[in-house]
Structure formats: structure tokens, C-alpha cells
Design goal:
The protein is an alpha/beta fold. The chain is 25% helix and 18% strand. It is globular and about 60 Å long.
Length: 447
């Protein structure tokens, strides 16, 4: 079988590795960058990457590993973007993936052919045909801008464009949105700016990175054996002990379960609020010039507005009449990867977990590779199963664009593991001490 993989980020490289593991060798991966890493290739200039200078993981090291490639012992609980990039590139080298990747090559168009095959047109002007198409181009590269009530005459940015705090020294800055990117921007800019506000339209849990000295996601993992109501109560009460009430910080109090929304994991925002460095604001009522009025009747003047309002699910190589998830409120895919109408089209990593993406992409890829080689068959009820998966998202999470592809990490992992054949090929990995030595520094194609 001839397989095309779009993207050599965290999901694309594990797709290649698992295909090789299953015995598939006619693989071509196209990536627009000059190196492995996708979203984690940091640049001071605006690019496809949403990573900024101070980005660290918000999931802990032990919850962010590929199944056959543990992160090294010398990595901290929350590795930096540079360490994460080194990890991905070492993974690609360790499993011999680089010969299958064509760098500096953007996929410009994909068309479906007869017989469930695919024509892939490239930025080089070439075109190739494939039996299977694996889409792993990520979903954090095309910013979603909000409709602001008025015209702002200052500097207007999306958090995707934020790279470091230096341009905001001495300025008055408003950050819109209290997700992970919004909180990171507010905290970092508050170290140098004259005044920083964060506008929060809806209540949001702000979860510290540590609980009792351990990463918070490992605490949540320890609650999985409990009945859901008891686990939910313990999550809320543990947060209460750590932060008190959010009203004490001038923030709206959430009235929904902790895991019903994508978590904001940040240990510094509440600290900065209590130190007068970040000023909470309600939703925006209107904007005139550089003045912003908020829903509570208060107003302030700002030099810069940064909108941390998420990303579009962009598949620019598909005709919008074929597949268009940018405007979709519901995306029915079985196991978040199998399209009911296109059996040779597989999405790897098109989900947003409450944790790291790539360990789950690893298991998706393992299942996909076994499907390509005939060890696993698509169920005949795939249409119903895809709709059921979409139903679960609508039931489990608050309705918003942010949660269109949201999954619970452990529940989703369990579903994927259940589907993988017992006789699935395994990779015989080298010893962990060798892996440790490989994880030194990011590489580029040139070296």
C-alpha cells in the first residue's frame, strides 16, 4: 500500500513510525518546514507555530510520552518547548523516520480519485497518487479572530502572533480570553507592561500545575477508579483548597464540572492578580478608538489588544465543498479519525485532549497501521459510531467552538487500546539510557 502522511509534527511522525512497525514501507510524508516538529518549531517571527519564547508543556512529562519512547529522567516535570522539540526530533532519528519525510514541501491540493485513491498536488508543482491519506497537519496554526463590538485604533493581535513580552514594555495591554494562551500572555506581559488586563466572558477554572508537590494531571489520574460524582467532587474540593474561590480574584465562579471544559493550567495568573500585575475584566461591551467598555460598566484605555480566542480547524488542501471543518459545530468521526464516507482517509491528532495530544496520536496511528495492513476492519456501523462520538462530545463538554473536538484523555485512550488487535506488531525499542543520550538539542535538516 502507498500511504501519504501530511505533516511531520507530533502526530505525523508517530503515524510514520507505526506504519513502519506494521510493515508498510511505501510512505511519503510532506511537511512545509525544514525539520521535524510542526507546531513546536519556535521562531521569533510569525509562522505556523503558536509556541512563544517561554512556552512549557501544560501536561506533565509522564503523561506526554510516546508508548515506545519515554522522556528522559533529566527532563523536568513540565519540559520547555526546546526540550519537546528535541524529543520529537530524537524520536524521528531513533526510529529512522527522516528518509520518509520530504521537507520544504507544502501540500497545495488533495483530490479523491476513483477506487478510494488520492491525488496529492504539491507546492513543487508535482503530483502523486496514494492508496491511503493520513492527515496530521495539526489544528493550532490558523487563528480564530473574534467579532469585536467596535473598531480598535491601537495594535490588534492574536495570541498566535505573540512571541515574547519585549514589544509590550511600558504599554497598556488587554488580553481577551482566559485559556492557556491568554493566561500565558497576560502573565508574561505583566512583567514588563505598564498595565495588563484580562477579559473573561465566561467562567473558567484556573488549575495550578502542582498539587501536593506533584503535577496536577497525575492527581486526576488517581481519581479514575472512583465513581464520576465522587471524582468530580474531589476535583472541585482540591481546587478549593489550592485557590479558594475565584471571586476572591475578581473572576467569575464556574458552575460546571471541572472536566466539562478544556482546562487552563497556570500557576502564575492568580498570583499576578493578587499582586496587582494583572487586572481581571468582564466581557467587552463596546470599543471606541483605544477605549474599551466592559459589561460591568467600567472602562479603560489600551495600546494593544491580544485576542486569545483559539484556532480554526484548517484543512486548506481540501475543497471546501468536500470537507470543511472550519465552521462546523459538530465533527462526526469514529474514534476521532475515521470518516464514514471516505474509508481510506484517516485523521491523526484531530482532537483536543485534556492532556497531551501525541500519546493518543500514537495509539490512533497504531490502530491505523493495523487497519491499512488488514489486521483490523472498519465496523459496518461506522456512520452510527461516528455520530455517537460526536454525541459524547456534546454531552460531556460545554458547547463552544473550543470543544468541537475535545476528548477526555483517559477515556479516549481506553477506547483506542480496546480496538488495537492483540497480535499487533510491536517495536523492539533500545534501552532507555540510549534514548536519554539522544535527547540533547533540536536538530535541523542541515545538520
Amino acid at each position: 500500500m502507498k500511504v501519504c502522511v501530511i505533516g511531520a509534527g507530533c502526530s505525523g511522525i508517530t503515524a510514520i513510525k507505526n506504519l513502519l512497525q506494521a510493515g508498510v514501507t511505501d510512505i511519503t510524508c510532506y511537511d512545509q518546514n525544514d525539520q521535524v516538529g510542526g507546531n513546536w518549531i519556535y521562531s521569533e517571527n510569525e509562522s505556523h507555530s503558536s509556541v512563544c519564547e517561554t512556552t512549557h508543556l501544560i501536561s506533565s512529562k509522564t503523561m506526554s510520552e510516546y508508548m515506545d519512547f519515554p522522556m528522559p529522567d533529566h527532563y523536568p516535570d513540565y519540559p520547555s518547548h526546546r526540550q519537546v522539540l528535541a524529543y520529537f526530533q530524537s524520536y524521528a532519528m531513533h526510529f529512522g523516520l527522516l528518509p520518509y519525510i520530504q521537507f520544504n514541501t507544502k501540500v497545495s491540493q488533495v483530490e479523491k480519485l476513483e477506487g478510494q485513491r488520492w491525488k496529492v498536488s504539491l507546492s513543487t508543482g508535482e503530483a502523486q497518487e496514494f492508496d491511503y491519506l493520513f492527515v496530521s497537519n495539526g489544528h493550532h496554526s490558523v487563528p480564530r479572530m473574534p467579532d469585536l463590538p467596535g473598531t480598535f485604533e491601537g495594535e490588534l493581535l492574536h495570541s498566535h502572533q505573540y512571541k515574547n513580552s519585549r514589544p509590550f514594555k511600558g504599554k497598556r495591554v488587554l488580553v481577551i480570553g482566559a485559556g492557556n494562551s491568554g493566561c500565558d500572555c497576560a502573565v508574561e506581559i505583566s512583567r514588563v507592561a505598564a498595565y495588563v488586563s484580562i477579559s473573561m466572558r465566561n467562567p473558567q477554572y484556573i488549575v495550578p500545575k502542582f498539587f501536593l508537590g506533584k503535577p496536577s494531571d497525575t492527581f486526576n489520574e488517581g481519581l479514575l477508579w472512583m465513581p464520576k460524582p465522587m471524582a468530580g467532587f474531589l476535583r472541585k474540593i482540591s481546587l478549593k483548597f489550592q485557590v479558594g474561590t475565584y471571586k476572591q480574584y475578581g473572576l467569575p465562579e464556574p458552575d460546571y464540572p471541572v472536566i466539562a471544559a478544556h482546562p487552563t493550567v497556570n500557576s502564575e495568573l492568580l498570583y499576578m492578580i493578587k499582586h496587582g500585575k494583572v487586572h481581571p475584566k468582564t466581557g467587552i461591551e463596546k470599543i471606541e478608538g483605544k477605549k474599551v467598555w466592559f459589561k460591568d460598566g467600567k472602562s479603560a484605555i489600551y495600546d494593544t489588544i491580544i485576542t486569545a480566542t483559539g484556532y480554526k480547524i484548517a484543512l486548506p488542501f481540501f475543497d471546501k465543498d468536500f470537507i470543511n471543518y472550519e465552521v462546523a459545530d459538530r465533527i462526526p468521526l469514529f474514534l476521532r479519525m475515521f470518516h464514514p464516507e471516505h474509508p481510506t482517509l484517516l485523521f491523526i491528532g484531530l482532537f483536543q485532549p485534556q492532556g497531551a495530544i501525541w500519546p493518543l496520536s500514537d495509539y490512533q496511528s497504531k490502530l491505523a497501521a493495523n487497519y491499512v495492513t488488514g489486521k483490523w476492519q472498519l465496523p459496518t456501523t461506522i456512520q452510527k459510531l461516528a455520530e455517537k462520538d460526536a454525541d459524547i462530545i456534546e454531552k460531556e463538554f460545554r458547547k463552544s467552538k473550543r470543544h468541537t473536538i475535545e476528548v477526555h484523555y483517559h477515556a479516549f485512550l481506553k477506547k483506542l487500546k480496546k480496538e488495537i488487535p492483540k497480535d499487533a506488531p510491536a517495536w523492539v525499542s533500545n534501552k532507555k539510557d540510549k534514548i536519554d543520550k539522544e535527547l540533547v538539542t533540536p536538530i535541523t535538516q542541515s545538520n
